[in-house]
Amino acid sequence: EKQKAKKAQSSSYRPDRSALSDHFSPHALSPQPTFPTLRHPPPPSTMACIAAMNVMITAKAATGAVKVTGGKKYADIKAATKAGLVAGVAPFPEGLDVFGFFNGIDESEAQRYADVEITHGRVAMLAALGFLVGEQVEGSSFLFDADITGPAINHFQQVPPAFWGALTAIIVVAEGARVQLAWQNPFESERMFLLKDDYTPGDLGFDPLGLLKGKSVDEINEKKLKELNNGRIAMIAIAGMVGQELATGANSL
User: Fold this and answer.
1) Which residues, 6 or more positions from 53, have their beta carbon under 8 angstroms from its beta carbon?
2) Which of 19, 154, 180, 202 is deepest in the core (most CB within 10 A)?
3) At what angle do helices 217-248 and 107-137 cross, to 10 degrees?
4) pLDDT tens sequence across 149-205
5) Are strands 73-74 and 105-106 parallel, antiparallel or unpaired?
């Protein structure tokens, strides 16, 4: 009798599935996959650098708070990047120096390399733009009363002497101001061609359009990196344009 009653009790028991569904998930009994937590976010996708000085001038330099230590040397580009002197960008987070410019480099020399690259990039951007614009208006009254014709590599030789004098004066004034702002006095420094320790490469205080006004450090760094990379492209571009016109004798466009 006891066995019959026990069997009847067990067969009559039906759990309330609707009540269980609120608290029970069939996935609770199955093992859940685990994923490693990323301690560091992936680096931003930035244009690959193509020269030895594949660097933006670090966060300290961007704010103007950089202090260069003369005499301090680095074994190679990786050591300089690790120390924070320069900052590599993707896909070369440790820097790229195919010609070995940074092998045994002095910190003040690295500062000069950075300034030289930025300066040449700016000149190259102006040159590439001038090449294209000059050839579009050559032979028209817009350009020296149609006296300038042919490929852009021959335009400069055709300009009148007054233009040469005006251009030379502008270059002398601009370079004189840059030397006063950035370079150490060669008669007082320990050696020639040294920049001032507190000078940020490329920062001449010239921003007539106010592009950096009111910007955060990150935004300023981003604009500096864009300028640096565009300057590198422009250096390659103007070299290709000049080479093409020398080889073909025809306009680039």
Assistant:
1) 86, 101, 110, 113, 114, 117
2) 202
3) 60
4) 888 898 888 888 888 899 999 999 999 999 999 999 888 888 888 888 888 888 998
5) antiparallel
